[in-house]
Amino acid sequence: MSEHTDASKPMESAVKGMRFPVVTTIDRAGRLTSRPLTCASVEQDRVWFLVDRSASWTSDLPEHPQVNLAFSDSDDGRYVTASGHAVLDTDRSRIDGLWNPGAEAFFPNGKDDPNVAALMVTVDEGEYWDGPSTSVGKVAALVSTWIHRDPSRSGEHGRLAT
Predict the structure, then answer these.
(1) Which residues contact 23 (CB under 8 A, 6 or more apart)?
(2) Is residue 117 within 8 Å of residue 50, measured between CB atoms?
(3) What is the mean pLDDT of residues 125-151?
(4) Can you give the pTM of this predicted structure?
(5) What is the C-alpha separation between 16 and 1, in angstroms, rounded?
(6) HEC assignment per residue over 43-109
(7) Nearest-5° angle of CA 55, CA 60, CA 64?
(8) What's the CA gap between 109 and 107, in Å, rounded?
(9) Given its phi and psi angles, is residue 155 left (phi above 0), alpha (psi -120 to 50 degrees) or beta?
(10) Overall average pLDDT of the 70-94 stretch
(11) Would you state the pLDDT for residue 5?
(12) Band of the pLDDT at 107, cuts 50, 70, 90?
């Protein structure tokens, strides 16, 4: 991929269609821990998830709210990483607004389960990489990059607009 450019892209646009980021948090011992989560909504610089607030990692958030989100769509050659801070929200109207049929698989007692919470990640900064999506395009970009010794030919790389 190319070196960073002055290009910027809104979070919503950068992660469109990518629903399952790996979310990295910091535990009480200061270790990084990660898990895949299902993205419930992206609104400007905020990414929302439905989570189980009884999970051990959520109890670490008040002390260590810093998180990283890593989105990947290797079929389309798109990658996004975003860092920010997380807050748990137990407001029932927020949970109702984020609820979807897929959430029932993780919360069999439904949206009224007292352990269901909304996790809001406010993105402070991030980067994206967009490369060719087809096999032929990937090979062509690789060959062109190698021939011209120009990494910018392999795709676009920029910052998220936050």
Answers:
(1) 34, 35, 36, 37, 49, 67, 68, 69, 121
(2) yes
(3) 59
(4) 0.81
(5) 20
(6) ECCEEEEEEECCCHHHHHCCCCCEEEEEEEECCCCEEEEEEEEEEEECCHHHHHHHCCHHHHHCCCC
(7) 145
(8) 5
(9) left
(10) 95
(11) 53
(12) very high
Q: How far apart are CA 83 and CA 15, in angstroms?
A: 14
Beta bridge partners of 159: 8, 127
Contact 123, 160 (CB under 8 A): yes
The arithmetic mean of pLDDT across residues 26-52, rounded, is 96
Question: In this structure, which topology does domain 8-161 adopt according to CATH?
Answer: Pnp Oxidase; Chain A (2.30.110)
For the chain, give every domain's residue range: 8-161
| Chain length of the chain | 162
- Tell me phi and psi for residue 8, to 5 degrees: -135, 155
Residues 6+ apart with CB under 8 A from 133: 75, 76, 77, 78
Question: In the structure, what pLDDT confidence band is assigned to residue 152 with cuts at 50, 70 and 90?
Answer: low
